[in-house]
Amino acid sequence: MAPDLLWYEDTEALRRAAEYTCLHITHGGEEEEKVFVVGHDWVAMIAPCQDHPPMQMCLQNLVQLLSDPYFAQMCLAKEPVSILLLTNLEQRSIYNDDFTVPLLRLNRIGKVSADRLSLLTSCNGLLCLRDLGYKKDEISVCNPILKDYMILPQLRSKRVHRKILGFGITQSTNQYKLIQILNYTDQAENSDNFQVQIFTLGTNMWRNIGYLPYELIQPSYGAFLHGHLHWYAHSPDKTEFMCSFDLENEQFQPFPGPPIQDHGQCRPVNSISVGVSGSFLYLCDGFLESNIDIWVMKNYGVKRSWTKEFIVVNPLVSKLQRIFGSIHILNNGVNMNISDEEATEDAELLMLFGSEDLIAYNVKNKGVRKSKTFGNKSNYQAIPYTASLVSIKDAVMRVRSQAKHSS
């Protein structure tokens, strides 16, 4: 397999290029908005999941199987992680010098404006999307595999100056929740006045739960891991620290961060990034313009497990960090916990800066190259993505059933 595709899966069995398909979502219009998923053939995965797979399955049985929540969770556990790409190019290929992967068209999911759609994050195969325009700010959740989607109710309120979002699932009740943190235009000068609202799939309403106790710096949407959303933050006295939001009890709390220097008000907002790669929380510190330090939390919640895993010294990377601020590592945990001795010659981190530049950092020789993984240079958004059969309808019905039994 070509090197640029090594990160798109996490099992040795799927390294043959012929086993990959490429999917995209089409939203209509001359400048069609598309979401591409590099993954493997679902038909090839369905058969091994059954005790006695028949040679031919009638359509009714197949529909029943796909709609079974247990089967959806079983498939989610087996599905390798891909990279999901959102772009408005009319045609796009994922390629390098050796081969080109074909595209497979999916049915349209909702009607959105091609130039305004933002790919925020994903959880268990469900995507969180934002369509932002004049007098319009719609948040939607969709499963591109099932072509299943829900547009969340839009609040009729004052103009919003800044919005911070997050999406994830609770650990004990398996409820999907979205958080939005709002600073209104008439309160923009007061950075302490951020209202926190929660939406649980299946409730049809946003709930106010109070005000944000900190000033969140990065990222613009929470990094989700183990039932919590994570940010880098400032306290009222401008002390730097990490914080998390527990989706179960809907509370903010400080979170053990890496031992980086506290620069307080001197730190530029775009000098730090927080994200999740596989089962690892990471923090990229680019305060020193000569290099970027990448810290990885090896054991979740354990402060002493933070390790400065990579020091990227490269003028191009430093320049991109200053321009775009955000760094998204797309490896999904691959090569995030590897020593120089264990690293192979082609072990790399795939880093997306903003929506412009994709950089591959070689873990072994510390070299940097511009990756051509996503074809011709153009604006795009990309996130690690695990395709699934998790149904939004089932998630909604589960919450309503829980509410009915608790009343």
Automatic annotation (TrEMBL):
It holds the Pfam family FBA_1. InterPro entries: F-box-assoc_dom_typ1, F-box-assoc_interact_dom, SCF_F-box_component. Residues 114-392 form the F-box associated beta-propeller type domain. It comes from the Eukaryota. NCBIfam families: F_box_assoc_1. PANTHER family: BNACNNG10540D PROTEIN, F-BOX PROTEIN CPR30-LIKE. This is F-box associated beta-propeller type 1 domain-containing protein.
